[in-house]
Specification:
Blueprint (H helix, E strand, L loop, with lengths): L12 H14 L6 E3 L2 H10 L3 E3 L5 E3 L7 E11 L9 E13 L2 E4 L17 E2 L3 E3 L13
Antiparallel strand pairs: 1-8, 2-3, 4-5, 5-6, 5-7
Length: 145
C-alpha cells in the first residue's frame, strides 16, 4: 500500500478490492463497472452551469454559482447500439444533475415535480456510459474475473 494520504472521500485499494469483489460475487450477471468518458462529464457540468464555455475548447469554472450541485446516477437497462443482436439490452447508468435545495438534492430533469434551479438545454438526463464487462480493464485489480 502506498504511503500517501487519501484525498477527501478516498478509500484504500484494499477497501476498493473488497467492495468490488463483494458486489461482483453477489451480482455475477450484472455489470461490474461503467466507463464514463471525461468529455461526457464536462457536458453534464456545462448543463449544470458549473463550467462556462470560453471559445471552442476552453472552459472556466463558474465560481459565482451559488448552487450546490452533484451528479446522481440511476441504474437502468436499455438497448445498445453497439450490440448487433436485435432486442438485446444492457445495463446502463442514467446520469442527471442534482441541486441541493433545503437539505435535499433535487434532480434537474424535464417533467420534474419541483421548480428547476438550472435552465436545461435538453431533458437533463444523459446516457453516455459504457458497461463492463464489454468495456473492462482486464488487468485492473478491481476486475474480479
Amino acid at each position: 500500500m502506498s504511503e500517501h494520504s487519501l484525498p477527501e472521500n478516498g478509500i484504500t485499494i484494499k477497501q476498493a478490492k473488497d467492495w468490488t469483489k463483494a458486489w461482483q460475487t453477489k451480482n455475477p450477471e450484472i455489470s461490474k463497472a461503467f466507463l464514463i468518458p471525461i468529455t461526457d462529464i464536462v457536458t453534464l457540468f456545462k448543463e449544470l452551469k458549473v463550467l462556462i464555455p470560453q471559445g471552442d475548447k476552453d472552459f472556466i469554472l463558474n465560481e459565482k454559482n451559488d448552487l450546490e450541485v452533484a451528479i446522481r446516477a440511476y441504474l437502468a437497462i436499455g438497448p445498445s447500439e453497439e450490440i448487433a443482436e436485435a432486442g438485446k439490452d444492457e445495463d446502463k447508468l442514467v446520469l442527471v444533475g442534482a441541486v441541493k435545495v433545503e437539505g435535499d438534492y433535487q434532480d434537474q430533469v424535464e417533467d420534474s415535480q419541483h421548480n428547476l434551479k438550472v435552465q436545461l438545454s435538453g431533458s437533463g438526463a444523459f446516457d453516455f456510459t459504457l458497461p463492463c464487462p464489454r468495456h473492462c480493464d482486464k488487468e485492473s485489480p478491481l476486475n474480479h474475473g
